[in-house]
Amino acid sequence: MGNNIPSKSYSRCPNEINKTTVFKQEEPQTWCCCCKKQVSYRIPALVYLSDDRTFLAFAEKRKTLSDTNAEVLVMRRGTWKDAMSQEVEWVSGQQLLTSACLPDHRSMNPCPVYERESKTLFLFFVCVPTGVSEYEQIRTNKCRGRLCYVTSKDAGKTWSHTTDLTADVIGEEMKEWAPFAVGPGHGVQMKSGRLIIPAYAYRYTGNPNCTSFCCLSFCCFTSYALAFYSDDRGITWKVGNQLDVESCECQMAEIIDDKGVSTLYCNARTTLGYRTEALSYNSGQDFATVLSPNKLIETGNGCQGSVLSFLQQSDPPITYLLYSHPSNPENRVDLGLYLNKTPLDSSGWSDVPAMILHHGPSAYADLVEHEPGRFACLMECGIEHENEEIAFLLFELPAKKL
Fold this sequence. Notes:
Helix content: under 10%
Mean pLDDT: 90
Strand content: 35-45%
Strand order of the largest sheet: 1-25-24-23-22-21-20
Largest sheet: 7 strands, antiparallel
Radius of gyration: 20 Å
């Protein structure tokens, strides 16, 4: 879901240490979504595999910036050298994930999750028929996407063939959905072992008796977040219930309180001017509590954001939440990092960003923790436009913020 209006020129932040371009838009540099010669990269997703000290960065390779011109998923591999150098060495060149596809479909929205017991990396994505737009699925009130994944047992060096879960997992529920997608960004493995893949699906919410063309438009459809989940290390999957409030592209995080009780948190994009935040007390089967006071602002018509839980070392350990999103309420600029030390209470979010990860145009991003207290971000950013490149950045939180 793009916002491809050029932004004014910004200078680079002097404090962007260890910022590395992972994917870069290819010539010619033009912001015309119809330009068929423009190769672009969008929709970043990031995972860290601690056993291999390896970051895997994923994105969509597109003919243009347009969602409809997505083609294939791509990946780059980076090795974290050591804590002293704070450097990641990236293998030159990108890997086309040619097995992550279906014939005559485009692959979109990479969403990785690592299953720690079997040491299996799952990469979820959606496949949409070539040339079929999100608008076309809305106009016809028909979902055309497929829920798919590939797996790797060797830290992304090789990948399985695509597994299509659509019929077995979504089944008849597809008749109630228009477009749907996973993530984008990382999934979660909970303390219990349950694997969580965040997702959302549009449903028709207009007049049920109206079938005219004028009513089959975005204003008559609303997106609602949900989770796909597995309790057997990814052998079988189920679909949870959707939230009952508007919630689009989303990420989820596990919050563990001082008594060891687990709660699944959802943070989702909306068109309401603020983010939807919700809690699940049954690990994603449904989200019974929608949080307020809607403290996290949305940007313009909305933008994807990333959320991550981490343990602040104490006795007992305390869960904090990190959230990244453009900090400007109108435009996709100044990617901010926000901190909540009381994550079950949405009023705990900081009023201003704890850090600005990129000054200037910036949009979608994905956060991971690679060592206790050490984090990485994969983000769309640029000098004149947010889709000039997808860059990688290592960072630590300022001590005074913790």
